[in-house]
Amino acid sequence: MHKVFNMFLKLIIAMFIISNMLSCSDNNDNIDQEPNVILIFTDDLGYGDLASYGNPTINTPNLDQLARDGVKYTQFYVTSPVCSPSRSSLLSGCYPKRIDLHKHVIFPQYRYGINPDEILLPELFKEAGYHTACYGKWHLGHQEPFLPLQNGFDEYYGIPFSNDMSRKEQILRGNKKYPHYLPLMEGNDTIELDPDQRLFTKNLTERTLGFINKHQSDRFFIYLAHPMVHIPLYVSDDFLNTSKRGLYGDAVEEIDWSTGQIVEVLKELDILDNTLIFFSSDNGPWLPFKTHGGSAGPLRGGKGSTWEGGMREPCIIKWPDNIKDAPAVDHRVWSSMDILPTLARICQLNLPDNQIDGIDLFEKLIQEDVLFPERPFIYYSSRGKIEGVRVGKWKYRQQKDTAFLMNIEEDISEQFNLIHQFPELADSMKMIMNNFDKKMDAEMRPHGKLN
Predict the structure, then answer these.
(1) Average pLDDT for residues 378-389, to the nearest whole number?
(2) pLDDT number for residue 24
(3) What is the rounded distance in angstroms from the CA atom of residue 327 to the CA atom of residue 305?
(4) Rounded distance, CA 166 to CA 192, Å?
(5) Do 230 and 286 touch, CB atoms closer than 8 A?
(6) DSSP class of 61
(7) Where in the chain is the domain with CATH 3.40.720.10?
(8) Nearest residue to 246 (alpha-carbon basis) of 302, 288, 293
(9) 3-class DSSP assignment, residue 112
(10) Least confident among 12-16, 20-24, 237-241, 422-426
(11) Binning pLDDT at 50, 70 and 90, where does residue 434 land?
(12) Which of 83, 94, 134, 315 is catalytic?
């Protein structure tokens, strides 16, 4: 069995390399016009936090409608169970380790960030003539060289790191010596310290709607990165105490409202049909906060872990008349790294010269029955240590001295360790995981540092 599985893995890797080469093709004959793109990325939203993903007490009619009109993905992965590394993958198309942003989140006292030499998704859009805007949480470095305006965005309004990294919030928790304030930024300038977080979702939505109206006759790319539903939770007065799920449900429902507002203005301006909307989250729910945190639904674990609940996210894409015949639920495996090369194909963007890890899944998005070669998906921990690999239906996970082998399709909750039934399979997958990490060590590019 060991030899057979090794041959199978070699075939997988070979097919993955071929598909990656094909992803660089400029063939997008099936696209009538390059669309506008809106990426909506929430913070710490769990796999089970939307009604369309099974939540019985959070009301999300706008996101549910988005899923009915588009595609709901059940096996979409982010590359890290914490925010900075995960966000780096969305915008770079790389595993965080490749660009040296894998070692946990960027705190206010740190003096590094995304390397300005990395070519990010907004830079590709800008080069192609799109108007670009980032609203919300950035968290890829808060010194000027690492901020959105220096990395492809025409406009930026939001916070440069997480909403709990705030003197006001830390004092509320009893940490009276916390020296750092949470900046609210406009472009490269701080316009307020420790702002009223109750207004975040509403203000970011208004900024997004204003940008859409301003550029309705142009092509635009918007990265709307909601600071919610990261702890501490805040909502505007209109949504306070309106959900059965308490304050957490209030915050999710305000994000749902925000999404509905965006769809409505696109309809009113008659540009919805030529706008691709993507909705997901950076990592799983922050479980220690109990009812103040979210739910991973049937998945095990949450934020900070390499169990499925930490890295498998809700994901919805709507692109009218282009992505398959709606309604649809798609069970195929893909990741946030694939967003960059796929959008590059759709929007006729030039791919970066630097190596990326994502692949172009254009045909996969628009055709339900197209088969793509399996490829290993690697699980890196919140501290950047390799802990697992998925190949097809199998997941191998090792944390410290404990190893697990699970059939992830039959056992979505990761309750049954089959390592003693299939030891050779586990050994082969461990080898693939470790070899991948060694290759990533050799190919890693440096993060950005201040002089």
Answers:
(1) 98
(2) 43
(3) 32
(4) 12
(5) yes
(6) H
(7) 36-366
(8) 293
(9) strand
(10) 20-24
(11) very high
(12) 83
pLDDT band at 77 (very low <50, low <70, confident <90, very high): very high
Sign of CA dihedral 150, 151, 156, 160: negative
Q: What is the CA radius of gyration of the chain?
A: 21
Cα(175)–Cα(355) distance, integer angstroms: 43
Residue 414 · residue 406 · CB < 8 Å = yes
What CATH code is assigned to 2-11+377-449? Answer: 3.30.1120
Burial label for 361, CB within 10 Å (0-12, 13-18, 19+), is buried
Question: What element of type H or E holds 225?
Answer: strand 220-225
Q: Please determine, for residue 370, whether its predicted confidence score (pLDDT) is greater than 90.
A: no
Can you tell me the distance from the alpha carbon of 135 to that of 137, in angstroms, rounded to the nearest whole number? 7
Cα distances from 445 to residues 85, 99, 381, in angstroms, run 14, 5, 19
**102-150 pLDDT per residue, tens:** 999 999 999 999 999 999 999 999 999 999 999 999 999 999 999 999 9
The sign one gets for the Cα dihedral 105, 103, 380, 142 is: positive
Q: Which whole number is the average pLDDT over 435-444?
A: 97
Active site residue 315: no
- Tokens 């799983």 identify what position? 284
Task: Write out the DSSP string of 311-334.
Answer: HEEEEEEE-TTTSSSSSEEE---E
For the 36-366 domain, the top CATH level (class) is alpha beta
Q: What is the DSSP letter of 122?
A: H
Identify the pLDDT of residue 364: 74
Can you tell me the mean pLDDT for 425-434?
97
Note if 139 is an active site residue. Answer: yes
pLDDT tops 90 at residue 5: no
Among 94, 131, 134, 139, the one annotated catalytic = 139
CATH 3.30.1120, the chain: domain bounds = 2-11+377-449
pLDDT band at 336 (very low <50, low <70, confident <90, very high): very high
Q: What distance in Å separates the CA atoms of residue 92 and residue 115, rounded to the nearest whole number? A: 11
What tokens does 422 get? 């299939």
Tokens standing for residue 219: 């092509």
